[in-house]
């Protein structure tokens, strides 16, 4: 079902919620610059995520930890200026939202200087989410694998395989929603768990390595174009195979998400 895919109107948080209610899958990709932003927007990608993955795929670090708020503002602004329709979500980077007041200062910079329409933060930080929402800042939660906690987790591993951990993720997802978040990214969790969370929540759940039953999908752009250095994660797919151009690869991804052809079981846990 594609009620909103062909509309040229700029998307808001309301249309994203309506897409979930209508059963229309939400397509999302990371973007870091104006040229890719314009290309993704032209194809019809619904949400552009200025992810702190830019620390790895743009800056060449081995984690997202070195990324600063200044970096995020710069890339967010570059992306936001070039798109007409897509909704812009920007990551709060590592250690930039330890308290509600710190989060507000940094989220305000992302919105005022980076033209973000929503900020994303990792973990079940209910107090911070509630405070930001009270100040009029839309929030996207991020649960499952939390890349900013890679040193605590001991690597980039699938989360929620054991029952106790799975229940904790479900509980956190409900808390994040109840705190006022408008979107939730679920990263690297078993497909069945992600399906349960997507069913339980009113807000759209965007999966990455979380199976086909989420309300939408996101990938790191450079992974799906197969230009990232290092090993492509199992949950990603090289959309350049069979594509005639980068734009064609992005279109194939968009169509595969909308028609629930991606992710296939081999991209899921
Ligand atoms: O930083 C990022 O690109 C992300 C996605 C992996 C969801 O948070």
Please compute the radius of gyration using only Cα atoms: 17 Å
- Profile the largest sheet: 8 strands, parallel, barrel
CATH superfamily: Phosphoenolpyruvate-binding domains
Structural class, by secondary structure, is alpha/beta
Total count of helical runs of at least 4 residues: 11
Mean pLDDT: 96
- β-strand amount: 5-15%
Cα shape:
globular
Low-confidence stretches: none
Multimerization state: single chain
Strand arrangement within the widest β-sheet reads 1-2-3-4-5-6-7-8
**N- and C-termini, Cα separation:** 26 Å
Order of helices and strands: HEHEHHEHEHEHHEHEEHH
State the name of the first-level CATH class. Answer: Alpha Beta
Number of domains: 1
CATH architecture: Alpha-Beta Barrel
For the secondary structure, the number of strands is 8
Ligands (ions, cofactors included): 3-methyl-2-oxobutanoic acid
CATH third-level topology: TIM Barrel
Throw out a few tags for this protein.
about 270 residues, 8-stranded parallel beta barrel, about 40% helix, binds 3-methyl-2-oxobutanoic acid, alpha/beta, single chain, TIM Barrel
Explain what the structure shows:
The two termini are 26 Å apart. The longest helix is centred in the middle third of the chain and has 16 residues. This protein is of the alpha/beta class and 269 residues long. It is 40% helix and 14% strand. It has one domain: Phosphoenolpyruvate-binding domains (TIM Barrel). Helix 6 links the parallel strand 4 and strand 5. It is globular and about 45 Å long. Bound molecules: 3-methyl-2-oxobutanoic acid (KIV). The site of 3-methyl-2-oxobutanoic acid has 11 residues, from strand 6.
């Amino acid at each position: 079902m594609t009620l909103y895919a062909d509309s040229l109107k700029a998307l808001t948080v309301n249309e994203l919620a309506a897409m979930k209610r209508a059963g229309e899958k939400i397509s999302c990709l990371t973007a870091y610059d104006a040229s890719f932003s314009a290309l993704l927007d032209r194809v019809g990608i619904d949400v552009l995520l200025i992810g702190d993955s830019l620390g790895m795929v743009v800056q060449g670090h081995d984690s997202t930890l070195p990324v600063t708020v200044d970096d995020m503002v710069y890339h967010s602004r570059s992306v936001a200026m070039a798109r007409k329709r897509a909704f812009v979500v920007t990551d709060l980077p590592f250690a930039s939202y330890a308290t509600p007041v710190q989060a507000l200062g940094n989220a305000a910079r992302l919105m005022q200087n980076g033209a973000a329409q929503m900020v994303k933060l990792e973990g079940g930080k209910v107090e911070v989410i509630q405070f930001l929402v009270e100040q009029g800042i839309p929030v996207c939660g991020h649960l499952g694998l939390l890349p900013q906690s890679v040193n605590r987790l001991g690597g980039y591993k699938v989360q929620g395989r054991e029952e106790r951990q799975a229940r904790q993720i479900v509980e956190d997802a409900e808390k994040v929603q109840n705190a006022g978040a408008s979107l939730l990214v679920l990263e690297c969790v078993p497909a069945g768990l992600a399906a349960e969370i997507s069913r339980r929540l009113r807000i759209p759940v965007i999966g990455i390595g979380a199976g086909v039953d989420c309300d939408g999908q996101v990938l790191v752009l450079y992974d799906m174009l197969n230009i990232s250095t290092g090993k492509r994660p199992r949950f990603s797919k090289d959309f350049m195979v069979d594509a005639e151009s980068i734009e064609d690869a992005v279109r194939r991804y968009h169509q595969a998400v909308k028609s629930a052809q991606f992710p296939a079981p081999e991209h899921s846990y």
